[in-house]
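4.2 Preliminary Data

To establish feasibility before requesting continued support, the project team ran the inverse folding procedure on a target of 368 residues. The structure was first converted into the token representation described in Section 3, and no sequence information of any kind was made available to the design step. The complete token record follows.
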């Protein structure tokens, strides 16, 4: 029994289109020297490399996995979308949604990314591993059943959860998304279902700007099983932990899932170019430790973390290492080289008090 780490070099070969950050090239927008979207292979590769150098990788069960099958994809995505995606990929690539470009073989790489998440969930659900991390790329939490967007081409976590349920490995799952952007794809996949609890902590009004509203609670059988907690820009370490302690953990305990899956985006970290939050590496480690403890209390420790956003090539590796330290229980540490400077930038006590009060008010407004 161990902590699994699912990754594959081929996922690092996914390529985007002609962008400078999130702006399409043309007019007065000049190409960047590095080129392309902020979602690049470097943040993920450097994360794994850091674990190799510190020795943490040697303590993990490092694996790849086969691509998600067509049957597994169809449980979330309609044939019309999958066919169009495959055809476009075979013809050299393109873009089928907002900020979701891909190159030749993009379809195959995306199915491999979903396959890594599916294999991680399957291995933990079966008791083969204690818990696991899936270094999935491209990410998935923005992809709706028939609409890719926000760098996401397939709904990795939704595919994995549906596969585990179809195989009878789990009945109920809780998905916690702490990416800085709203997890609209996971929300859309389970919005009318009561067997999956979806919780999204995100920067209010960031991306997608029109989704992630407080009162979007689900529909039909799923009413009350979707929870959005839009946080104000500038929320830092203490604000995130307060949201986890006072809102997220009680909701997960009340739901009593068979497994907890974390959509782990590192873009709420202070140095990230696509967010305006102030989380630090310790924030991710502490959140992971808290959710791991809850998983031990309600679902025999069954917990899977799936990589989503995070665009600072310098800082993501240290945030990821902190998560893996907490997930695996390893004593190997990668000291955060920005800890002192980012701690100084944390909100002052009066702002922290305001942020905590706001989170409490949001919970009261939802009668949680």
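Position-by-position output of the design step:
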């Amino acid at each position: 029994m161990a902590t699994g780490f699912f990754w594959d070099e081929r996922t690092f070969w996914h390529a985007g289109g002609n962008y400078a950050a999130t702006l399409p090239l043309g007019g007065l927008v000049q190409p960047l020297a590095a080129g392309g979207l902020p979602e690049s292979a470097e943040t993920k590769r450097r994360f794994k490399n850091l674990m190799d150098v510190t020795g943490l990788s040697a303590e993990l069960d490092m694996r790849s996995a086969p691509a998600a099958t067509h049957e597994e994809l169809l449980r979330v995505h309609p044939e019309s979308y999958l066919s169009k995606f495959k055809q476009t990929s075979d013809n050299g690539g393109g873009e089928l949604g907002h900020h979701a470009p891909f190159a030749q073989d993009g379809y195959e790489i995306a199915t491999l990314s979903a396959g890594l998440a599916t294999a991680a969930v399957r291995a933990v659900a079966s008791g083969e591993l204690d818990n696991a991390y899936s270094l999935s790329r491209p990410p998935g939490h923005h992809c709706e059943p028939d609409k890719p967007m926000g760098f996401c081409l397939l709904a990795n976590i939704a595919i994995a959860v549906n596969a585990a349920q179809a195989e009878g490995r789990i009945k109920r799952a809780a998905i916690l998304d702490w990416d800085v952007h709203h997890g609209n794809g996971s929300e859309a996949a389970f919005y009318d279902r009561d067997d999956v609890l979806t919780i999204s902590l995100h920067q209010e009004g960031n991306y997608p700007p029109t989704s992630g509203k407080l009162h979007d609670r689900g529909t039909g059988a799923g009413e009350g099983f979707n929870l959005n907690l839009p946080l104000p820009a500038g929320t830092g370490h203490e604000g995130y932990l307060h949201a986890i302690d006072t809102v997220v953990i009680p909701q997960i305990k009340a739901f009593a899932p068979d497994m907890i899956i974390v959509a782990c985006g590192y873009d709420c970290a202070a140095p990230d170019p696509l967010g305006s939050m102030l989380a630090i590496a310790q924030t991710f480690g502490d959140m992971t430790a808290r959710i791991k403890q809850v998983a031990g209390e309600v679902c025999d420790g069954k917990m899977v973390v799936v990589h989503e956003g995070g665009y600072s090539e310098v800082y993501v590796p240290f945030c990821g290492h902190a998560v893996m330290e907490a997930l695996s229980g390893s004593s190997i540490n990668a000291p955060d080289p920005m800890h002192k400077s980012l701690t100084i930038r944390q909100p002052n006590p009066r702002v922290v008090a305001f942020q905590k009060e706001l989170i409490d008010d949001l919970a009261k407004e939802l009668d949680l």
